[in-house]
Amino acid sequence: MVDLAVCVGGLALANPVMPASGTFAEGLEQVVRLERLGAFVTKTITSELRAGNPTPRVAETAGGMLNSIGIPSKGVPAFLEHTLPFWRRWKVPLVVSISAPTAQGFAELAAALDLPGVAAIEANISCPNIEADGHAFAMDPAATLDVVRRLRDATRLPLWAKLTPNTGAIAAIARAAEEGGADAVVVANTVLGMAVDTETFRPRLGNVMGGLSGPAIKPIVLRMVHQCHKAVSIPVIGCGGIATPEDAVEYMLAGASAVQVGTATFLQPTAMTDIIDGLDAWCRRRGIACIADLTGAMRGDDDVLLAGAAS
Amino acid sequence: MPALAAAAEPAAAADLLAPVIANDWVNDEYKHLVLEAGAPACLAGAGQFFHLLCPATGADQPFFRRPMSTYRADPEAGRVEFLYKVTGRGTRGLATLRPGDRLRMLGPLGVGFSLDAAWRNIVVLGRGVGLATLAPLAAMAARQGVGVTAILSARSLAHVMSVSAFNEMGARTIVVTDTDGSSAPCRVETLLRGLIAAGRADAFFTCGSNRLLELMQRLGAEHGIPGQVALEQQMACGLGMCFCCVRPFREGGREVHKRVCWDGPVFPIEEAMGW
């Protein structure tokens, strides 16, 4: 019997597999036994009503997906009335992803969500900070420290900070999140990219630029998970191009305590439960009794060689 | 306007590997794919769609699944059929499927067409590949004893899809083409006005053409005729999760975004906005 349980940033999870924010909603109930997931992670909500970005919002690329959805949000009342009661029907821990244009806005939203049924807050600090000329909070260690500190003061719930890969200083950002009081870091959001239609000469996304996800980004994010795992003592949750059980194992070996699956679910709606089954089978085959032992178990790690590449 | 009758409770979707029974060309652009698929797939309602994992072939490596409206769903035979135009990466991959191959498909998905019990005669107006989407609506109407006039629009006679399918369902079929000019919106408008005058237009249904949608919206508003439209949009998940497939709609004097995969793909005709 393989023990798939992990403990991540203040939460005990039955297994290390959960959805990435924005790739999970009630429609999946039709085809997936949701009670099998390690956690639920909601689409990011904001206090502000947001319509989202113009279409086209999505474009497929080689081994990946470009999207620019723009965080459409119906605000907190709609979340409390519809979303929260829907997910409360399961015993699976519910992680609520939040975003705000200011550090104060983050803190107020987190405080408003300290409610029964909310197990943790995932702060999507990859979004533009209007107080810093639109630069994402998680592009800058000082802005990260500030917003995470304010969030920490505002909520008793386990607090996860979701970082952006669009920085050359991921380890420093992760350390700032840890110093600010985060219980875990989620590494990472999408990689900024774009595509142009060679027939029409127009960008393939209505917003011109968007976030790349899927297998195309896996090696980049895996490297960042490794760097963050070395930089901080809080758990790292890996998120970037995970589509198979082997991908999840790879992330755990590189330092992830748990993983989020996003784009893969769009291609195969049962991807998350397939990965859970596959992890169980993989551990049996390798004689691994406890999956948590995989975290950071990569061998042959050479700090000297990596020093030049570390931020 | 009569309230729409509640649609039958939609079957839950399932992801299955469906064996291919046939995949034949019907003209130089369209293929007809027949799959063996039990419940819930074969219980798909008119206007519902499937999310197909189109095979990768050589240079064509589709990343996402492709949404495809149901051409026919036959619960007795345990079959689902699609009529598709071979046009891009996904459909070029679909075109390579041979009998005995298997296609992974998720469905049935989305909100399909519904018929109000008060409607005795409906008008179905489609163009191009939109005709495939409307065919199961004509079948549903025939089963419920509702008279159907189907106006089928295409570039030429060779590209008119599904004439025999509509005829077999007992629809009164009118073919209009670009070749002889009969598909011009002003000429279709004359046809529609004739059907309204003859009492054969209790409701309008359309798919596949912005100009025909706007024509039906205008005449529907003028005569108080309700209607529905099936819309398309590029999709990623097909299950309402990603918010990629939104389109703008008019609702209560405001413009709102709705998800084509989840709130549709069939919408009240007056809410739709042209493209």
TrEMBL record, chain A:
SUPFAM superfamilies: FMN-linked oxidoreductases. It catalyses: (S)-dihydroorotate + A = orotate + AH2. Keywords: Cytoplasm, Flavoprotein, FMN, Oxidoreductase, Pyrimidine biosynthesis. It comes from Marinimicrococcus flavescens. The gene is pyrD. The keyword Oxidoreductase applies. This is Dihydroorotate dehydrogenase. GO terms for molecular function: dihydroorotate dehydrogenase activity. Its cofactor is FMN.
TrEMBL record, chain B:
One of its GO terms (biological process) is pyrimidine nucleotide biosynthetic process. Residues 13-115 form the FAD-binding FR-type domain. Binds 1 FAD per subunit. Keywords: 2Fe-2S, Electron transport, FAD, Flavoprotein, Iron, Iron-sulfur, Metal-binding, Transport. The keyword Kinase does not apply. GO terms for molecular function: 2 iron, 2 sulfur cluster binding; flavin adenine dinucleotide binding; metal ion binding; oxidoreductase activity. Its cofactor is [2Fe-2S] cluster; FAD. [2Fe-2S] cluster binds at residues 237, 242, 245, 261. FAD binds at residues 66-69, 90-91. This is Dihydroorotate dehydrogenase electron transfer subunit. Belongs to the PyrK family.
